[in-house]
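Trying the structure run again after the queue cleared.
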Amino acid sequence: MSEDMEKRSRFGKRRRENAPKGTKKRREVWVTAEEEAQLLIRAEREGVTVPKLLISAATSDAVETPTERRAIVAELMAVHTLLGRVSNNVNQIARHANAGDEFPKDAAAALAYVREVAQRIDATVEGINP
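Done. Tokens:
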């Protein structure tokens, strides 16, 4: 093998290794012109072919599916609603505490709920892949 071919095979694009029992399935994917452009740009940026990009994206555990993404968005929306409710409760407690000398009895429960919501926010954010 010439030195030029050796350098190209070490640093350039290569075919992936043959599967031990051979390729069993072939998949065809139809994409729009916009999707094709996005695939080409991403593959070029990653330094791989489009089929390799699609295979690695589909088989990676780090990638979230659309269903998982919708579940995360739904959870974040629910947390947003809870945060609004908790904020309202804390404001009512503060208003009551500032009006008199007595601290409300249910303030401790409201503050415990604030901590619970904060932990839920932390868990949801940690569940999101960067």
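The helical segments are 3-11, 33-46, 50-59, 66-99, 107-126. Worth checking whether this holds up in the mutant runs.
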